[in-house]
Design a protein that fits this description.
This protein folds into four domains: 113 residues, NAD(P)-binding Rossmann-like Domain (Rossmann fold, 3-Layer(aba) Sandwich); 179 residues, 3-Layer(aba) Sandwich (Rossmann fold); 129 residues, D-3-phosphoglycerate dehydrogenase, domain 3 (60s Ribosomal Protein L30, Chain: A); 77 residues, Alpha-Beta Plaits. Helix 13 packs parallel to helix 14. The protein is of the alpha/beta class and 526 residues long. The protein has 17 helices and 22 strands.
Length: 526
C-alpha cells in the first residue's frame, strides 16, 4: 500500500510509514493536476494546509482509504465528499498545542512592550525610548474565549506570569477550569467588560464567524488589547480597524486573517497592530510532533489497527446504524437545539430512554446526542467515536437511565441538561419510520418538526400573540412552514415554536422580542 506525503514534513514521517511496511511517495507542494493523475495509486494521503483534497479529486480516488491532516483543522479536505466515498479523514489535534499557546504568549508580550516596533525603529537608526514605553502584564486581566486544549495552556502560562485569568466557554465544566486557576464567567459580555487583554481560541464555524464585531468592541474596556492565534474570520477585521482608530482598542496581535496572505489589508497600516504569517504551529518541535502523530495514525489505519482522531468515521456496523438512524438524527438535533436555548456552561446531562428503544443499542443514540451538544465548540471535529472522550475531557457528566414504563409514545428520548442558570428539558420521538419530532420542552407539550430554521418563543398565553408573530415574519417575506403551541393552563405561561423556510435576521428577532407577552425568543439552526 502506498502513502502520498503531499506537503513538506520531516523525514521521521517516512521512517514510521516504511517501518510499518508501507510504500511512501513524497511530493511536497504537488500541483492539483499531478495529484489528479496519481491519487488513484494511493491508499493514504498525509498533508498539511498547502494541498487541497476536493470532491472532484476524490472522484478519482478508487483505492484511497484514509487522509490525515498533520494539524488541527481539516478545512482543506472535503470531508462530506470523503465520507460519501468511505474515506476516513483524520487530524492531529495534540501536536501543536504547546506551540500555539507559546506563540499567543509571545504576542501578548510583544503587544505590551512594542517589541516589533521598537526593533524596527532602532534598526532604522532611531533611539525612541519614550515612544515605546510599554505596560506590565503582571496584575492585568486576561480574558480567554474558548477553554479547549490551547486555551487552557495559555491560561497556565498567564497565571505563572501573575495575571488574573477569566474565561468563557459554555462547553466546559468548572471542575476542569479550576485546575488551571481560571475564573469562568457566565457570558461573553461579562468577559469583554472585565478583560485588559482578550485572546481567542475557538474554531471557525457558523457559530463563531464574526464573534467579535463593533457591538462587542463597544462592551470592552477602553484600551483593551486583542490577540488572535486561532482562525481568521472570528474577529471582524473592519470593526477591529475602526476600534483601534477610534481608541476603543489599544492594539491587536494577529496571526491569522480572513484572506491569507493579507495583501491590501487595512490592519497592516496600523502601527498598533502586530502581525505574523500564521506561525502558531510553526516550531520545529510542533512540526516534528504532528508529523509523528500523522504517520503513526496513518500506519495504524492502513494496517488494520484502527483509526484515531477520525472526524467522520461511523463506528458501528452498518445494519445496526441503519435501524437506529432516525433516533441518531433525532438525538443530534435535540443536543444542538438544547445548546441554542440554554444559558450558561454545561455541567451535566441526564438522558432517559423509555419504551422499545431500550432494547436497542442506545449507546449509538447517546453518542449522537453528545455530538449535537459539542459540535459548535470543537474545531478538531466531533463524531460518534470522539464525543464521549471530549465530554470526559471537559468534565461534563452523562447519566443514562432506561425504563420500560408506559408513556404516550412507543419510544421516547428525554434529555435534561444542567447549567449554573438552571435546568432545560427536551423530549423527542420518531413518528412513522423516519419523522423525528420534539414532543416536550420544559414541561410544555408540543409537536414540532426539527427543521433547519426554527423560532422558539416563551411567553404568555394571550390573544393576538400568534397573529403579531405572523405579521413580523410576513413583513420580512419569511414563510411559516409549521407552527405549534403549548401551554400548561389558559392565560398562563406558554411556548410557541415556528418552523420557517428561511433564516430569520437578527433585526426580525429583536422586533419579536419587543412584542407584548414575549419573555424570551431563540433562533435555532439545525
Amino acid at each position: 500500500m502506498q502513502v502520498l506525503i503531499a506537503d513538506e514534513l520531516p523525514d521521521i514521517c517516512i521512517e514510521i510509514l516504511e517501518k510499518a511496511g508501507l510504500k511512501v511517495l513524497k511530493k511536497p507542494g504537488i500541483k492539483a493536476d499531478e495529484l489528479k493523475n496519481i491519487i488513484n495509486d494511493c491508499e493514504g494521503i498525509i498533508l498539511r494546509s498547502g494541498t487541497k483534497i476536493t470532491a472532484p479529486l476524490l472522484e478519482k480516488a478508487e483505492r484511497l482509504k484514509a487522509v490525515c491532516r498533520a494539524g488541527v483543522g481539516v478545512d482543506n479536505v472535503d470531508v462530506p465528499a470523503a465520507t460519501k466515498k468511505g474515506i476516513v479523514v483524520m487530524n492531529t489535534p495534540e501536536g501543536n498545542i504547546t506551540s500555539t499557546a507559546e506563540h499567543t504568549v509571545a504576542m501578548l508580550f510583544s503587544l505590551s512592550r512594542f517589541v516589533p516596533q521598537a526593533c524596527a525603529s532602532t534598526k532604522a537608526g532611531k533611539w525612541e525610548r519614550k515612544k515605546f514605553t510599554g505596560i506590565q502584564i503582571s496584575g492585568k486581566t486576561l480574558g480567554i474565549i474558548g477553554l479547549g486544549r490551547v486555551g487552557r495552556q495559555v491560561a497556565k502560562r498567564a497565571v505563572a506570569l501573575e495575571m488574573k485569568v477569566i474565561g468563557y466557554d459554555p462547553f466546559i465544566s468548572p471542575e476542569i477550569t479550576l485546575q488551571y486557576s481560571i475564573h469562568v464567567v457566565k457570558n461573553l459580555k461579562e468577559l469583554l467588560s472585565q478583560a485588559d487583554y482578550i485572546t481567542i481560541h475557538v474554531p471557525f464555524n457558523s457559530e463563531t464567524k464574526n464573534l467579535i464585531t463593533q457591538k462587542e468592541f463597544a462592551i470592552m474596556k477602553k484600551g483593551a488589547r486583542i490577540i488572535n492565534c486561532a482562525r481568521g474570520g472570528i474577529i471582524s477585521e473592519e470593526d477591529l480597524y475602526n476600534a483601534i482608530k477610534n481608541g476603543q482598542a489599544a492594539g491587536a496581535a494577529i496571526d491569522v486573517f480572513d484572506v491569507e496572505p493579507p495583501v491590501g489589508n487595512k490592519l497592516l497600516e496600523l502601527e498598533q497592530v502586530i502581525v505574523t504569517p500564521h506561525l502558531g504551529a510553526s516550531t520545529e518541535e510542533a512540526q516534528f510532533a504532528v508529523a509523528v502523530e500523522a504517520a503513526e495514525q496513518m500506519a495504524d489505519a492502513l494496517t488494520g489497527k484502527g483509526f484515531r482522531n477520525a472526524v467522520n468515521l461511523p463506528p458501528y456496523n452498518q445494519e445496526e446504524y441503519n435501524i437506529l438512524k432516525p433516533y441518531i438524527t433525532l438525538a443530534e438535533k435535540m443536543g444542538s437545539l438544547l445548546m441554542q436555548i440554554t444559558k450558561g456552561g454545561l455541567q451535566n446531562v441526564d438522558i432517559i430512554y423509555t419504551g422499545e428503544i431500550t432494547r436497542k443499542n442506545i449507546s449509538l443514540v447517546t453518542d449522537s446526542l453528545m455530538v449535537g451538544l459539542l459540535k459548535p465548540a470543537l474545531e478538531e471535529g466531533v463524531n460518534l467515536v470522539s464525543a464521549p472522550h471530549f465530554m470526559a475531557e471537559r468534565g461534563i457528566k452523562i447519566n443514562v437511565t432506561t425504563t420500560t414504563g408506559v408513556c404516550d409514545f412507543t419510544s421516547l428520548v428525554t434529555v435534561k441538561i444542567n447549567t449554573p442558570e438552571g435546568e432545560t428539558t427536551v423530549s423527542g420521538t420518531v413518528f412513522g419510520k423516519n419523522e423525528p419530532r420534539i414532543v416536550d420542552i420544559n414541561g410544555y407539550g408540543v409537536e414540532a418538526a426539527l427543521d433547519e430554521h426554527m423560532l422558539i418563543l416563551f411567553g404568555k398565553d394571550k390573544p393576538g400573540l400568534i397573529g403579531n408573530i405572523g405579521c413580523v415574519l410576513g413583513n420580512k417575506k419569511i414563510n411559516i412552514a409549521h407552527m405549534t403551541f403549548g401551554r400548561k393552563e389558559s392565560g398562563g405561561n406558554a411556548i410557541t415554536i415556528v418552523n420557517v423556510d428561511a433564516a430569520i435576521p437578527q433585526e426580525c428577532l429583536r422586533q419579536i422580542e419587543k412584542l407584548d407577552h414575549i419573555d424570551a425568543a431563540y433562533l435555532v439552526h439545525l
